[in-house]
């Protein structure tokens, strides 16, 4: 009878044990997924920072070109004005 009671107790506890194991696996997978999501978010932040730095550098280069072009326009305007005065 002891064996029967022992087997009955194990049978009764098996579904609980299985469900707890499944719950533990689910928690572990969820934690892993959260870790992966965190890494992905950090990578996205790094990429955004790099893109921002590149955009600022490109804008700086364009501003420098624009400034140089404006200086050339000013110089040409002065030369045209001098030519018109000398006529």
UniProtKB/TrEMBL annotation:
Keyword annotations: Coiled coil, Membrane, Transmembrane, Transmembrane helix
Residues passing through the membrane, by range: 20-42
Coiled coil location: 52-86
Protein's name according to its UniProt entry: Holin
């Amino acid at each position: 009878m002891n064996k029967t009671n022992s087997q009955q107790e194990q049978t009764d506890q098996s579904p609980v044990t299985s469900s707890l194991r499944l719950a533990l696996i689910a928690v572990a997978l969820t934690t892993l997924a959260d870790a992966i999501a965190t890494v992905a978010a950090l990578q996205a932040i790094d990429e955004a920072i790099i893109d921002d730095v590149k955009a600022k550098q490109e804008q700086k280069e364009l501003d420098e070109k624009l400034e140089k072009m404006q200086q050339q326009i000013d110089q040409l305007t002065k030369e045209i004005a001098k030519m018109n005065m000398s006529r």
